[in-house]
Amino acid sequence: MSESRTMPPIEETGLTQGEVIALRESGLNNTVKASTSRSLVDIVRANVFTLFNGIIFAAMVMVLITGSWRDAVFGLIIIINTGIGICTELKAKRTLDKLSILVASDYLVHRDGKDVEVPHNDIVLGDLMWIRSGEQVPADAQIVHTWGLELDESMLTGESRTVRKGEGCDIFSGSTAISGMALVKVIAVGEHSYAAKLTAQAKVYKKTVSDLNKGINTILKFMTFLVVPLCVLLIWSQARTVGGWNVAISTGEWRSAVISAVAGVVGMIPEGLVLLTSLNFALAAIRLARKNTLVQELESVETLARVDCLNLDKTGTVTDGTIRLDSVKLLDIRSSGIMCGNVNEHDVRQALFDLSNEGQPNGTGQAILSGLREQGFVDGTVEARVPFSSARKWSSIYDGNAVWTMGAPEVILSQIDGDHADILKQVNDFANDGNRVLLVARIDGAAPDDYETNPKLNPASCPIALVCCSEHIRADAEETLAWFREQGVRCRVISGDNPVTVGAIARKVHLTGEHEPRFMDARELPADITELAQVLENVDVLGRVLPDQKKAIVEALHAGEHVVAMTGDGVNDALAIKEADLGIAMGNAAPATKAVAQVVLVDSKFSHLPDVVARGRQVMANMERVASLFLVKTVYSALISLGVVLTQIPFPYLPRHITYVGGLTIGIPAFILALAPNTRRYIPGFLKRVLHFAVPCGVAVGLSILSTSWLLPIFMKWDVQDSGAQLAMLRGVNAIILLMMGVFVLARVAKPLHSWRGILVLAFAAIGFGGMLVKPVADFFALVVPTGQMLAATMVAMVLSALVFLVCLRLVPKILSIVPYFKKTRQS
């Protein structure tokens, strides 16, 4: 605690040191316990005890009980997938723990008749505290005395209109003092304060469920109902093939029955797809992080892929935010017949300096101050001030002789007397050149008594001068916008500035390509969401947009069935960013804005946005491609298991066979394909499209394996139920058929094959068949190389399987087309 500079004299003495100590010991200080709703135990429990893990773990235990550990290697997927999930959520927990609407800093309180600075946490209930311009309110309080305090409460309400506060008014923690100052009495601290309650809500962990994840979960839920009874039936049927349970138990053949049942069950679970989804979301986040882009929710990667509409804030995206003062042009007042007294250029520039010299001037104000300081201007006389408000669009000062006003020309001119058509024409001419134009108006005489508490523009004010400033356009803006046009993403610029000015900048960066951008004043927008949606279809640039309109614009685009991304950096953008499907905050954005955004551009570079969208599209388009591979295995495993139960034959292959074939034709190729470039915009309906591909291929593979299992023993005159060697040979042949069919499916998924994709398919086919010739590999995975008559039979089986594959690809889609679920499936 340190003593601070002298503040305005007041009669109150504040709390004594003894009272402060007593209140602190009672827990009535401004400390908030930092914790999320999810503990480490909750996170571990949620990721370990999942439906997917339960099925795989049960299957692994069943195999281990038989003593055949080689057939249980599929269980490693549990460890990997669970580890990724826990690490991801722990990272989210750390982010949430750091989240706070309040920015911790020192504050000035009045105790024992003195002003002293104390940390945020040392403020106690009943403290007298100074709130100064630029400070954030740390605790709920009631105003005792005010010297023109004006607050921005948008961090709490999303409404960015600055609010003038009088004595007796309540103010809430999390709001920010824009101008003036006040002495306040603290009425709520710690977890009882308004901001703490909001922070608690923001810290509640909410897992975003993507279309892809919903599809996978649907499959897993279906498998749950199918797996248990089918596993029981498989064990029963396999026991019968060896002579019944008595024989199976006495001879030890029950182990083979269990392993066979697990082979069917594990094949039906797309375990690699679950892992690959987690890995790809994580890899996308890592790759974007390398380019200074923070993805705060991994599942938002899917939203990146679906975006077709991007709302841009002009400042900080199209322009870099730097502004310079270009000129101050006095208006020819006499030619308009308006009498405004004697005004010279020096007086106008001095007033302009004082109007801009607020506690926290915006970018335009800073540019004006910088330009006028270079001309030698310093602080002038200001007896009263009305700070700039985004709602009013103007600011004002009283210098002892006259009231000066500066702000948006069309707003000011609409509220003062006279015909100002000539002035508006000049404003539009300057704005058409891309200038940001402000108007300075003046009225002689004293300010009204309620000048600061009830600010109004005097209709008798005279327009004096036009101020022209210009913004620096980002060097990469035109190229970035061109990329979005090529990718089918509609970009709109939304700004609080003059629509003509914004339109001119949009024209310079070719926002709409060779076409002239269509601009509109947001004050003319309809309030009805449906009408607004229709209007927006024909608008590229919106100017004079109020903060509450930004959210309405997002809602209207949603009504038009668009997937909307919204960029922003101010607290007034928070509600629109939260309303958007994808909120993108700049790195210099307010904490509350970054908190509700799914993506943060750490270095605030607009040029990173194509990487953000392209990465999302790559992940989702490729995941849809590779999901087809995994679900083919699910379909044919279910079909084969059903065929085995109905026809009472030994299971056609071992779990290690499906591990070998699946790894070479699904798992590893899928991982490579998932990393390939792909800019196709993702469209909802993942599961339907994937099944439309997977069902025909899965049926083809399943029928091929079953046909071989039924016909080959007849052709070879084998008794596979009595001869373990002949059963092993049959399973070895089926492994070859399965590998061949897996290569066929991989070739279909990897198309077009005239590039590296064709080489990929050939490489894994060579590795798969070549592995059978490597003795350690063949021994571990129980692979066989047929010879003699067996080789000929295998070749015939492969040809027949290829024919079955082709027939199924033609017939099954036609059968599916009459199934209601698939009638409206949109093809990729």
Automatic annotation (TrEMBL):
Residues of the P-type ATPase A domain: 108-202
One Pfam family from the record: E1-E2_ATPase
Coiled-coil region list: none
Gene3D superfamilies the record matches: Calcium-transporting ATPase, cytoplasmic domain N, Calcium-transporting ATPase, cytoplasmic transduction domain A, Calcium-transporting ATPase, transmembrane domain, HAD superfamily/HAD-like
Compartments, as annotated in UniProt: Cell membrane
Membrane topology value: Multi-pass membrane protein
Transmembrane segments: 48-66, 72-90, 219-237, 257-283, 626-646, 658-678, 690-716, 728-747, 759-778, 790-812
UniProtKB keywords: Membrane, Translocase, Transmembrane, Transmembrane helix
Main subcellular location of this protein, as a coarse class: membrane
PROSITE patterns referenced in this protein's UniProt entry, alphabetically: ATPASE_E1_E2
PANTHER family: CALCIUM-TRANSPORTING ATPASE
Protein name: Cation-transporting ATPase
Native organism: Bifidobacterium catenulatum DSM 16992 = JCM 1194 = LMG 11043
Record lineage: Bacteria, Bacillati, Actinomycetota, Actinomycetes, Bifidobacteriales
